[in-house]
Amino acid sequence: MSKPKTMKKLTSSVAAIIILAVCLCITTFALVYSTVTVDNNLFQTGEIKINLNDGKPVITEREYLFEPGMTVEKNFFIENQGTWDVYYKLYFDNVEGGLADVLDVEIRDGDTVLLGGKISELTKEQVGAADDILKLKERRELTVSFHFPEEAGNSTQNLYLSFDFKADAVQTKNNPQRLFN
After folding, report:
1. pLDDT tens-digit readout, 73-87
2. How far apart are CA 165 and CA 162, in angstroms?
């Protein structure tokens, strides 16, 4: 009499295991299918393209022989040719020479100062994003001034300065912290 009860329990246990295995397979399939299939979601990437003065130098080599008290102002532009509004930053790269710690530089948009200081302090790592946004297809006419402080005196004779003037930009969309990668 114990054999039929044992057989009945064994059959019930095997049936329960089969039913649970089938349920597990169906649940796993449903979960995988729901994570792989995402209907009606479109993703687009934008293009970031900045035109900085048509690639022309703002100031050319040997254009000026700086002396104490001298100020030179040059006009240039920055233009957003990408597909979205951008945060941007202007900075000096590959800075070489003793005048990097002497000349005062100021970049202005009209009367608004966007950036100022010694060239050696205005590098990519030290400069943050400008306070304003460069809108899609917007072109800004800016001015950079280089000032050789009069108090620098003769101790700066025979010093030179070499640099690249650059701009970086990042999309404003989904970037409220103005993070540059």
Report:
1. 999 999 999 999 999
2. 10
